[in-house]
């Protein structure tokens, strides 16, 4: 009778300490799309060319497949233990000129950006990388 009790106890112990989500699951913030800020939207003016818009906003996340005159910029942040923040800017062009600007979402505050807290090594800035000496460099020969 003592052996089945040990087996059941061992089974319950393994079940509770296994990879099940009994104790909770680690979650991450998931940012997706183009980062859209209020400052970027404020720089847009009707009459700007597509090139000028691309310099301010970057390339669009979505271009309407049947109407090349509409660009969509969408930013979505799904917080791990919170809600979802979404911003959307739709730009409509008339030929090569910006005609209409429509936006949705909360632009009153800066977007919440997830911190880079991964388990991997921290990335170094380019300024922190030492330059290699050029003593042993041979010129290219034709």
From TrEMBL:
<comment type="subunit">
    <text>Part of the Bam complex.</text>
</comment>
<comment type="function">
    <text>Part of the outer membrane protein assembly complex, which is involved in assembly and insertion of beta-barrel proteins into the outer membrane.</text>
</comment>
<dbReference type="GO" id="GO:1990063">
    <property type="term" value="C:Bam protein complex"/>
</dbReference>
<keyword id="KW-0472">Membrane</keyword>
<feature type="domain" description="Outer membrane protein assembly factor BamE">
    <location>
        <begin position="33"/>
        <end position="100"/>
    </location>
</feature>
<dbReference type="GO" id="GO:0043165">
    <property type="term" value="P:Gram-negative-bacterium-type cell outer membrane assembly"/>
</dbReference>
<keyword id="KW-0449">Lipoprotein</keyword>
<dbReference type="InterPro" id="IPR007450">
    <property type="entry name" value="BamE_dom"/>
</dbReference>
<dbReference type="GO" id="GO:0030674">
    <property type="term" value="F:protein-macromolecule adaptor activity"/>
</dbReference>
<protein>
    <recommendedName>
        <fullName>Outer membrane protein assembly factor BamE</fullName>
    </recommendedName>
</protein>
<dbReference type="Pfam" id="PF04355">
    <property type="entry name" value="BamE"/>
</dbReference>
<dbReference type="InterPro" id="IPR037873">
    <property type="entry name" value="BamE-like"/>
</dbReference>
<comment type="similarity">
    <text>Belongs to the BamE family.</text>
</comment>
<dbReference type="InterPro" id="IPR026592">
    <property type="entry name" value="BamE"/>
</dbReference>
<keyword id="KW-0998">Cell outer membrane</keyword>
<keyword id="KW-0732">Signal</keyword>
<keyword id="KW-0564">Palmitate</keyword>
<feature type="region of interest" description="Disordered">
    <location>
        <begin position="108"/>
        <end position="142"/>
    </location>
</feature>
<dbReference type="GO" id="GO:0051205">
    <property type="term" value="P:protein insertion into membrane"/>
</dbReference>
